[in-house]
Amino acid sequence: MIKNYFKIAWRNILKHKFHSALNMLGLSIGIAFTLLIAAYVWGELQVNKSVKNIDNQYIIQSNWKDPDMGLVITTIGPLAKALREDYPNLVANYYRWDGVTTNVANGDKIFREGLQIGDSSFLRMYGFQLMYGDAKNAMTEPFSVVITEDRAVKYFGKKDVLGQSLTLESFSGSKHDFKITGVMKNPAYNSINRITFDNDNQLYVPVSSAAYFSRTLDEWNNPNIVGFVELQNGVKPKDLEAPMQQIIALRSNTDISANMRPYLVPLKDYYLQQNNGLVKKMLYTVSCIALFILLMAIINFINIAVGKSSTRIKEIGLRKVMGSGRKQIIFQFLTESVLLVFFSMTAALLIYVLAAPFLSAVLGKTIPSLAAFPVYYGLIPVALVFIIGLLAGMYPAFILSALNAVDSVKGKLQSVNANIYLRKTLVGFQFFMASVVLIGAMILGKQVSLFFSKDLGYNKDYVVSVQLPRDWTRSGVQKMETIRDEFARMPEVSSASLTWSVPDGTGSGTMSLYPAGKDSSQSILFESVIADKKYLETFQIPLTAGRTFERPADSLNIVINESAVKTLGLHNASEAIGQRLFASADMPLNVIGVFSDFHFGSLKDKIRPMVFTNVNLNNAYRLMCFKLKAGNIGSAMEKIQAKWSALLPGTSFDYKFMDESLQNLYRTEIQLKKASQVATALALFIVVLGIIGLISLSIQKRTKEIGIRKLLGASGSSIASLFMKDFLPVVLISGIISIPVSWFIMQKWLNDYNYRVPITAGPFAVSIIGLGLLAVLLIIIQIFKATLQNPVKNLRTE
Amino acid sequence: MIELNGIYKWVNSGNNRIFLLKDINLKVQEGEFISIMGPSGSGKSTLLNVIGMLDEFNEGEYNFLHESVHKLKEKQRAALYKLYIGFVFQAYHLIDELTVYENIETPLIYQDIKASERKAMVADILDRFNIVGKKDLFPTQLSGGQQQLVGIARALIAKPKLLLADEPTGNLNSKQGEEIMNLFSELNKEGVAIIQVTHSEKNAAYGSRIINLLDGRIEH
Asked: How far is B191 from chain A (nearest CA, A)?
């Protein structure tokens, strides 16, 4: 019996090649996209899952009274260690690290690397595997380093590099060899090596070398250390709340203990929860998109199956007359749809392999290859074939099996007329979704281009930033200033600036300052950036009052933005000039200038009070920024690089254009934009398949009518309008329904941004008119094909 | 075998009730060969469908082999005709996607007969109808007469007690028609009861009894 079902299913697929192909094409693309997204989601859910004893692993986070006071993701240096020592029955182990970025060299191979200065527990606590070296003592000796196999290959071209050494630069500019005591197998993505996406540390230095980098992990007033703890079995994170508060109250200063409350986050949720659940939101969004695309493909399937049913009516009637029960007919149709889905699934897996690299690029994350999944996951496609097959085949099967046997045998029933409304509703639903996705993609695109627009308050064009080697001393700064001026004299460079950061949201920190006549309890939090006299010029930020740093004596002077002026309660910018702001009673800073507001960070955030401090104040810097003159950028960069090698021999020239820096800042948004574009393309594709399938079926059914009308003298366009009348209202109605829905969704998304594009009528009009034209075009093409034939021939086919 | 008592069937069209069958009383014995005649629209096919349980009627009683058909549920009725009745159509009504062999086999599949048994039964009937050489062809590759032969073979495969034929020769030329009618007589002699609808006096003469219908009534 089953064999029989398969046989007839197969012959039916072959008989209706065109529609079977349409059906399978749409479905396989829908399934492939869903599988790819599912794999991506799976990959994201695997983050941290391979860490040893994951259920007891926690990271200590900080809840600051004012979020501008400190970082959430770090904690007090010695806290994790003290917890283990004071509460050994609660805490089984700890790991802390301080992240630094420095130049790492093997001979003439020099790169900037992020490295973790961390506790020796690192290797054994999380189950990281050493390919070479001994986990017990690899992280103990001073001037030793553990690296990943990736880095071994990067610097040495091979993995077995135990005993060799790398030269690491300190922040005072000195260099020292570090012996490689371990090569670690590349770890699966986890939040210990990579606490944020950008912070990908692959070199690990023991705490015994912290002093070399002028760092310490044991300072009770340093809240910038990442701390992990492994709890004893059965201990709840809540059990540590009181101990942590106590320890801090006892040992840290009041600034910290009064304003910060540490808490534990399970490492297994950490990745998904971080940044207010940004990853989680992304996962939900793309999953929804994928499911809707799949739904559209299934609807296509149903539509074509129901539409095609007229050709099956006689067969069904006959089978009933010959004694078939309804159940058997249902089974037969389900077999057919399962078989179709099976072929689609096969194609989908092929598409998966081909499209995975492309979608990986779109989502900015490698999508696991099929081989990466556990073997028993192979059952999932099999199960999906049945589930989708049943879902898609159910409706047609039930309708068709319910037909009256005699009527169909006698040919009374030409089609399943009652379903025309349903089919139109389904097509309408497809249009609706395509329209929502299209509108969403357009608005998203607009907002993303706002990120890169000219309205950021500064000019990002032709600005390049290069990482500098560190020598954070008075003489080091002076040397850099000389080098800066050397660069500025190049004809390709219009201006150069020595600074801590470009406007990418990561300043040098925050500063609480209070005006003269008030005390520290009334201080205002400023986003602070270490800058020099050329910063405003390089980024073309207008000065609204006063002047910027110019003289050597300016080290205790500051420049603030207009928002700061407002927050200080002053009426205008010039009033601010000469004001004294106190970081502490013995450290007054003079306001010498005011610059107009610009977007230092994401457009999500409001522009905050900002202060520029002079590089001479802290003798700290990170970047050299160049504003290039318009012209041949490539050759300009070559010349700058040549000059760089001459002025700063032995340092890497890692440069970034401002656009790249912004792309990092808006990575999620850009991913979402690309994903929405892919989804739009797929949605439109499936809608096109759906319209083609439906119209060709209705033309098939009305061949005779078309023939008669043509014989009576109807023109091609009047025949086309017959079909238009059928379909255009559907497009229009679904388009209209999509307006409030997409408006609501996009408004909700945009609400996250303090600075956002207005939602205009444009995208809605484009979407509805565009989809309408698409439908018209498809109808005209197919009618044209149908009417080309001799009408008499059409009549004869009856 | 069959007993129809006061069968009425009608359809409502607006306020009018149009009668398709009016007060039909008919008895059919086992092994009879009946021809139903009458002008177009007189209700011949409707009557055949009612007898074949493919159509419902609105009033009256219908007993088939001591079962009261009017009291049965659809499923039971289907089980009944599946077992005892074979159908032959004017337009053959073979399933285009199936070969000759598979078309004939289909009713057996629906009766849950084992594959090996099915094979033997189909082979028998192919042999008897002399169409062994055609068994792997599809209906569209056959002539009308050959298609009707397959249609009859399919109707007979499950060894029904009653064969219902709705103008079985209507689409055939006279020679093919004659062959089919001869086959019917032969089958009748073997004990299969046959009820056929026909326009042709000549074909009607093959039967043992003729029933004339006019406007849904049996003319006496």
From this structure: 21
From the list A7, A328, A409, the residue facing B89 with the nearest CB is A409
Residues near A737 by beta carbon (within 8 Å), at least 6 away in sequence: A432
Distance (Å, rounded) from C-alpha A759 to C-alpha A763? 8
Distance (Å) from the alpha carbon of B106 to chain A's nearest alpha carbon: 7
HSE of A443, CA atoms in CB hemisphere, 13 A: 28
* Amino acid in position A740: P
Q: For strand A557-561 and strand A587-595, is the pairing parallel, antiparallel, or unpaired?
A: parallel
For A96, phi then psi, to 5°, come to -125, 145
- Say which DSSP state A416 is in: -
If 0-12 CB within 10 Å is exposed, 13-18 middle and 19+ buried, where does residue A536 land? buried
Chain A residues in contact with B111 by the CB 8 A cut-off are 323
How many angstroms away from the CA of A25 is the closest CA of chain B?
24
Q: Name the token pair of A589.
A: 């800073």
pLDDT at A343: 92
d(CA B220, CA A566): 111
Question: Between chains, do A15 and B110 touch, taking CB under 8 Å as contact?
Answer: no
Compute the residue count for chain B. 220
Q: Which residues contact A337 (CB under 8 A, 6 or more apart)?
A: A301, A305, A389, A390, A392, A393, A396, A397
- Rounded distance between C-alpha atoms, residue A138 and residue A84, angstroms: 22
| Long-range contacts formed by A357-362: CB under 8 A, 24+ apart | A359/A36, A359/A40, A359/A678, A362/A671, A362/A674, A362/A675, A362/A678
- Beta strands at B2-13 and B16-28: parallel, antiparallel or unpaired: antiparallel
Q: Do B107 and A323 touch (CB under 8 A)?
A: yes
- Rounded-to-integer distance, Cα A336 and Cα A334, Å: 5
Is the model's pLDDT at A780 over the cut of 50? yes
Concatenated DSSP letters of A275-330: HHHHHHHHHHHHHHHHHHHHHHHHHHHHHHHHHHGGGGHHHHHHHHHTT--HHHHH
Q: Which two tokens stand for residue A491?
A: 């004809």
- Amino acid (1-letter code) at residue B96: D
Residues of B whose CB is below 8 A from A12: 97
Q: Among A16-25, A312-321, A399-408, A592-601, which is the least confidently predicted range?
A: A399-408
- Tens of pLDDT, residues B155-200: 889 889 999 998 888 888 888 888 889 989 998 999 999 999 998 8
First-to-last C-alpha distance (Å) of chain B? 21
d(CA A695, CA A775): 10
A1 contact B CB<8A: yes
**Region A332-356: what's the mean pLDDT?**
90
**Do residues A116 and A98 lie in contact, with contact meaning Cβ atoms separated by under 8 Å?**
yes
Report residue A658 CA to chain centroid gap.
19
| CB of B135 closer than 8 Å to CB of B115 | no
Residues of chain B under the 50 pLDDT cut: none
Residue A798: per-residue pLDDT: 38
Q: Among partner residues B52, B98, B158, which is closest to A8 by beta-carbon distance?
A: B98
Q: How far apart are CA A217 and CA B180, in angstroms?
A: 103
pLDDT of residue A713: 67
CA A275 to chain centre: 12
Portion 94-123 of B in contact with A at CB < 8 A:
94-98, 102, 106-107, 109-111
Residue of A20, A320, A321, A404 to mutate for B, most B C-beta atoms under 10 A: A321
pLDDT at A323 over 80: no
Q: Is A411 helix (H, G, I), strand (E, B) or coil?
A: coil
Is the pLDDT confidence value at A710 over 80?
A: no
Partners of A146 in the beta sheet?
Answer: A182, A204
Helix axes A2-15, A17-46, angle to 10 degrees: 110
